[in-house]
Specification:
The chain is mostly beta strands. It has two helices and 26 strands. The chain is elongated and about 65 Å long.
């Protein structure tokens, strides 16, 4: 075997030192790469009273700062340490009470649970930890901008508490719940939004609303520039199960048109074949004015299924309509809200807002 010279030993030492240096540096390099990746995620605080920054990922840790409502924080990293930070709220306990629980628990009546994870953030040179349930990866507008586009001055959602893929500030709107108790319909103003949190699904980011006012709710309506009349309202609702008696498949889109409900509310349909399963238009008439209840929004277009609610939602003593459509180009039901108070001259109602429900 060839004997190693001093030069060889020197080179070997340099090589081993280089390897050790890279091994020590490697975690740092990895952390830098991870930080660079998540550092670009700007997160907007959607908690109205702001969000506390804590010194460590624990509710028992010291508060070292606060991110105000609509403030943008930089997320540095996430921590999944085998537990959730669960925010429980109820009317009796107050909306801003927070509890750390070692396991997921089921909330009782009147309570809502929002489970989030601890994330490390940087805000105004303060680095600490917050719960990500109140961080939205959406940019809320600085001001409440008014315009006349569909889904802007009026927002309309179903009763599942999710208020949609909302790219607007929920606090710019007055929120109302449409409820049914027995055969009576009422509109209740949601005076306290309670808690809001973010969610993400196939449609993208959105905001979920939690409020005691949403019990027994059929629909949720948000409005700008005007108010809805609260209290008992006149109205009739159609059992949507009646629409599926003759439903066969997605391609046919055949369903049962409840002619009794339509006749009672002076709503007619047109059909080239004369078949009530193949209607092309739904027509309303009042005081000599005739108008089609239709859905078109950009490249979205709906095939009318049936009017499912008729009543005075906006308190102007005129009928408003909620109509169900089948999206012509995708697997969505469309629920449109036509309000009489928003109508233009020579019209009975205006398409004011809508929401979509995906079906398989």
């Amino acid at each position: 075997m060839k004997k190693m010279t001093n030069m060889d030993l020197s080179n070997l030492k340099k090589f081993l030192l280089a390897i050790c240096f890279l091994l020590v540096l490697n975690p740092f390099l990895n952390s830098q790469i991870i930080s660079a990746r998540v550092d670009s995620l700007r997160n907007t605080v959607i908690a109205k009273n702001g969000l506390n920054i804590r010194s460590s990922p624990s509710l028992n840790s010291r508060i070292i700062g606060n991110i105000p409502y609509k403030g943008n924080a930089t997320v540095i990293g996430s921590y999944y340490m085998g537990f959730d930070t669960i925010l429980i709220s109820s009317k009796s306990e107050g909306w801003n009470q927070y509890y750390y629980l070692g396991r997921q628990e089921i909330a009782g009546y009147g309570k809502y649970i929002v489970a989030g994870n601890w994330v490390e953030v940087e805000y105004n040179n303060i680095i600490g930890y917050v719960n990500d349930a109140y961080l939205a990866r959406i940019k809320l507008p600085v001001n409440c901008i008014d315009d006349s586009d569909v889904n802007s001055n009026v927002l309309f959602y179903n009763s599942l508490n999710q208020i949609g893929f909302l790219y607007a500030d929920p606090y710019c709107y007055k929120w109302y719940s449409v409820n049914q108790t027995g055969g009576e319909f009422t509109i209740t103003e949601i005076s306290d939004l309670g808690m809001i949190s973010t969610y993400t699904d196939y449609g993208g980011p959105g905001i979920t609303l939690y409020s005691d006012s949403l019990y027994n709710s059929l629909y949720v309506i948000g409005v700008k520039n005007f108010k809805l009349k609260t209290g008992v309202i006149s109205g009739q609702i159609l059992d949507e199960n009646l629409l599926y008696k003759n439903y066969r498949n997605d391609l046919d889109n055949d369903f049962y048109l409840n002619s009794d409900f339509m006749d009672e509310n002076n709503i007619s349909y047109t059909s080239k074949t004369g078949n009530p399963f193949k209607q092309e238009k739904l027509i309303i008439k009042e005081n000599g004015i005739q108008q089609e209840l239709e859905f078109r929004d950009g490249n979205k277009e709906g095939k009318p299924m049936s009017v499912i609610f008729v009543g005075d939602l906006d308190g102007d003593d005129r009928m408003d309509y909620i109509t169900k459509f089948a999206n012509k180009f995708s697997s969505y039901w469309i629920y449109s809200l036509h309000l009489s108070s928003q109508r233009s001259r020579g019209k009975l109602v205006k398409l004011s807002a809508y929401f979509e429900v995906y079906y398989d």
